[in-house]
């Protein structure tokens, strides 16, 4: 049974979230503050996080979470009353996997949580190797010639996806859908920015890349290293 942690300071909303998630067959641990939930997160399969929390905001906590090597891969659904596009983008860029604006239906809540679980509970291998590049999927860690790469969560996700599917060309729109998710509100320029950042981490020359190749008019691919 998947374990969902809920962090929501309004007790009525918290009880409603717990009720509907448990009724759908999920195990739920619910907390009023981020600090109170820390121990439970170690065994969580997904986090439902409210933006506005007492003390540390949900957005600030999410940023800290994405910097934690043990929790950076935890899928997060952010809840908020903020409906402005700029605020939704801020939440997603801070590391949220999905975004739900209050008020919302119980059916949509459950559907989005289950979609997060399906997205992360895949049959992808735990380790990917391509020449001197090694990616530990379960630990969310990438190493180049033995040295650890200091990647953001999205940089790691993009690198892992392209390495897993090395040799295949992906367009920007497809990468947004496969790595960021269909609900991501940013534009295709986001992919270009992340590829540029990854090349800097990898020491890749864009004119003669060893890893991330640009295929003119089509997109990007991970170069296949000879055995």
UniProtKB/TrEMBL annotation:
Kindly give the SMART domains that the UniProt entry links to this protein: REC, Trans_reg_C
Q: Which parts of the sequence carry 4-aspartylphosphate?
A: 50
Biological process, per Gene Ontology: regulation of DNA-templated transcription
Q: Which residues form the OmpR/PhoB-type domain?
A: 125-224
Q: Which UniProt keywords apply?
A: DNA-binding, Phosphoprotein, Transcription, Transcription regulation, Two-component regulatory system
> What does UniProt give as GO cellular component?
cytosol; protein-DNA complex
Residue numbers of the DNA-binding region are: 125-224
Q: Where is the Response regulatory domain?
A: 3-117
Write down the Gene3D superfamilies for this protein, in alphabetical order: 3.40.50.2300, 6.10.250.690, Winged helix-like DNA-binding domain superfamily/Winged helix DNA-binding domain
Stored InterPro entries: CheY-like_superfamily, OmpR/PhoB-type_DNA-bd, Sig_transdc_resp-reg_C-effctor, Sig_transdc_resp-reg_receiver, WalR-like, WH-like_DNA-bd_sf
Annotated GO MF terms: phosphorelay response regulator activity; transcription cis-regulatory region binding
One Pfam family assigned to this protein is Trans_reg_C
Q: Which PANTHER family match?
A: DNA-BINDING DUAL TRANSCRIPTIONAL REGULATOR OMPR (PTHR48111:SF4), REGULATOR OF RPOS (PTHR48111)
- Protein known as: Two component transcriptional regulator, winged helix family
The organism of origin for this protein: Deinococcus maricopensis (strain DSM 21211 / LMG 22137 / NRRL B-23946 / LB-34)
């Amino acid at each position: 049974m998947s374990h969902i942690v809920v962090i929501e300071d309004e007790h009525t909303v918290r009880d409603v979230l717990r009720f509907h998630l448990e009724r759908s067959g999920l195990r739920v641990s619910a907390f009023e503050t981020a600090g109170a939930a820390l121990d439970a997160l170690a065994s969580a399969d997904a986090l439902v996080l409210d933006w506005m929390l007492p003390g540390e905001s949900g957005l600030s906590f999410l940023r800290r979470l994405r910097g934690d090597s043990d929790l950076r891969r935890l899928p997060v659904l952010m809840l908020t009353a903020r409906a402005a596009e700029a605020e939704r983008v801020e939440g997603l860029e801070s590391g949220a996997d999905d975004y739900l604006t209050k008020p919302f239906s119980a059916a949509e809540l459950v559907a989005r949580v289950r979609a997060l679980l399906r997205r992360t509970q895949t049959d992808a291998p735990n380790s990917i190797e391509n020449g001197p590049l090694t990616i530990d999927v379960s630990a969310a860690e990438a190493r180049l010639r033995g040295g650890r790469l200091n990647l953001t969560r999205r940089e790691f996700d993009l690198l892992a996806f392209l390495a897993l599917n090395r040799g295949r060309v992906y367009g920007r729109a497809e990468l947004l859908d496969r790595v960021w998710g269909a609900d991501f509100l940013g534009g295709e320029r986001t992919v270009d920015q992340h590829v540029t950042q990854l090349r800097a981490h990898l020491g890749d020359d864009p004119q003669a890349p060893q890893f991330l190749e640009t295929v003119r008019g089509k997109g990007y691919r991970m170069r296949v290293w000879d055995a």
